[in-house]
Write a structure and sequence with these properties.
Number of strands: 20
Mean pLDDT: 94
Bound molecules: NADP nicotinamide-adenine-dinucleotide phosphate
Number of helices: 18
Low-confidence stretches: 1-7
Length: 488
């Protein structure tokens, strides 16, 4: 059997990547998650004499690399020194030596025997349009066991280019760096990459790297396969979003072969082709794309048209349908607390989240007045939704039953801030839609004045649960989702 044939159907290997000074590497090696398959040891800062003890120590197979500054590494010596470090690694038992395509070292492979060779190519600036042709040129090299292609994703289409490359061959590790590339690191087993690199220590060794723990525990890396259905979150930035954790735990609770990944993107212009080409079943949409995505949709529920915003897109074959689960999720917790008919409501803020309240509350029989830091925006929303607006300082004396706070003031990390002074709080209920933290300074102040409070967790879980149901057609495990949100 040829080497290539024997590679077919092999699982995607999880490689923990560690780098740094020798002392740091020794402690990092001892901390590598034992569920890792291989360890990549970066020898950039390791003198030749220290290589033997480092490489020989771990029981897992080692991939040895020594990256020059020009290749994104720390190594500053010459090619003689670099080659001798990698030879020493092979002699010490490294299973693999990673060499850069086009480098002098990659022309003399026998010297690194018995280790096998990974021939790699990185682009730290972007994904070139001729990625496929470059890979074909790379494949002309002989004596290579594995190829590795790692561009940087700048837009969603770059993820399609990675998947297309992986479809062609079985001896390739391919994924993209950068925040947009994060999805390709999680989806490596779905698309057939032979391996993926994850952060083996506290510090990532490449931009966008996900930790070993997150891949295994949050994304259920070991159970992902080409059969796994894909969903995710579209927006920017997404680094601190709780949605991947929430949706993936919900999938795990019901043992659904689904995964939810961040699709960080600056624009939505290639969203349609992206979702269709990669067969993404559905996406949640967050800031700043909730309005712009409307132009990408084939159909939308009437509420999306009314609100001018979609937070959910479901793909059916080649068609995209937009939904808005924010509005119902925003109101449902309120309805459970108080009868809304004839209530006088103050809305703080006039952004995306305020829109849902501004349009929906009058339908529930409420009289709504919006107050916003930027008066023009309050006026514009009031005009569109047919509600009243007020000058910020006039709120001090405005009587109301219910105040709904939709600004980010008080959100992590500035948790001590309040959008309005304590003395302005009155009425029977203060609803702060911030969910991180659940208990904001505003809600504490309201309670100290004997006013009932409602936090943003139920709303967040409500909109996510409705998305889950639109994606999968299965009832969402709301208790699990509540628990996740209350324990972060
Ligand atoms: P957005 O579209 O950016 O709107 C933010 C609003 O807050 C604007 O009206 C803005 O006023 C105002 N604002 C911002 N900083 C302020 C400050 N320092 N003082 C006074 N007003 C300020 O954001 P969004 O999507 O509506 O989200 C707002 C908040 O709601 C976030 O904290 C988000 O986490 C939360 N949220 C929660 C849920 C949930 O499910 N619980 C869902 C969506 C949003 P200007 O017009 O003057 O800029």
């Amino acid at each position: 059997m040829s080497e290539l044939a024997s590679q077919k159907n092999e699982p995607c290997r999880l490689i923990a990547s560690i780098g740094g000074e020798p002392d740091h590497l020794v402690s990092a090696l001892s901390l590598v998650d034992p569920r890792t398959d291989w360890i990549e040891v970066r020898l950039d800062q390791v003198p030749k004499d220290a290589v033997q003890s480092l490489i020989a120590a771990p029981s897992l197979p080692i991939v040895a690399t020594c990256r020059r500054k020009q290749d994104g590494g720390q190594f500053e010596g010459d090619e003689i020194e670099r080659g001798s470090r990698l030879e020493a690694a092979s002699r010490a038992g490294a299973a693999w030596i990673d060499l850069e395509w086009g480098s002098d070292l990659a022309r003399h492979l026998q010297r690194f025997s018995p280790a096998r060779i990974i021939l790699s190519w990185h682009d730290f600036n972007g994904t070139p349009p001729d990625l496929g042709a470059r890979f074909q040129a790379m494949r002309a090299a002989s004596g290579i066991s594995l190829f590795k292609v790692v561009p940087t994703a700048r837009r969603l289409h770059d993820l399609v280019a990675i998947r297309d490359l992986l479809r062609e061959t079985d001896d390739l590790i391919a994924f993209a760096m950068g925040e947009t590339g994060v999805a390709s690191r999680v989806l490596a087993p779905v698309w057939g990459s032979r391996a993926i690199y994850a952060a083996g220590a506290e510090q990532a060794t490449a931009p966008g790297q996900v930790s070993v723990g997150a891949l295994l525990d949050q994304y259920r890396f070991r159970s992902l396969s080409p059969r796994t259905r894909m969903s995710g979150l579209l927006g920017r930035p997404l680094g601190h979003s709780l949605s991947p954790r929430l949706h993936n735990e919900a999938y795990a609770t019901l043992s659904l072969d689904w995964v939810y990944v961040p699709f960080e993107s600056e624009s939505v212009e290639d969203l349609r082709d992206f979702m269709i080409a990669l067969e993404i079943s559905g996406v949640s949409v967050t800031l700043p794309h909730k309005e712009q995505v409307l132009s990408e949709l084939d159909e939308m529920e009437p509420l999306v048209r009314d609100l001018g915003a979609a937070n959910t897109i479901v793909r059916s074959g080649g068609r995209l349908r937009g939904h808005n689960t924010d509005a119902e999720a925003a109101l449902a917790p309120l309805r459970k607390r108080i009868p809304l008919q004839d209530k006088k409501v103050v809305l703080l803020g006039a952004g995306g989240a305020a829109r849902a309240f501004a349009f929906m509350l009058p339908r529930e029989g409420c009289t709504v007045t919006v107050y916003n830091r930027t008066e023009e925006r309050a006026k514009a929303l009031a005009c569109q939704a047919g509600i009243a607006w007020g000058r910020w300082n006039d709120l001090a004396a405005d009587p109301y039953d219910l105040l709904i706070q939709t600004t980010p003031v008080g959100m992590h990390p500035r948790v001590e801030e309040m959008p309005v002074p304590r003395e302005w709080l009155r009425g029977s209920l203060i609803y702060d839609i911030i969910y991180n933290p659940a208990e904001t300074a505003l809600l504490r102040a309201a309670r100290s004045r004997g006013i009932e409070t409602l936090d943003g967790v139920e709303m967040f879980v409500g909109q996510a649960a409705a998305q889950f149901e639109l994606f999968t057609g299965v009832n969402a495990p709301r208790e699990t989702m509540n628990r996740v949100m209350r324990t972060v």
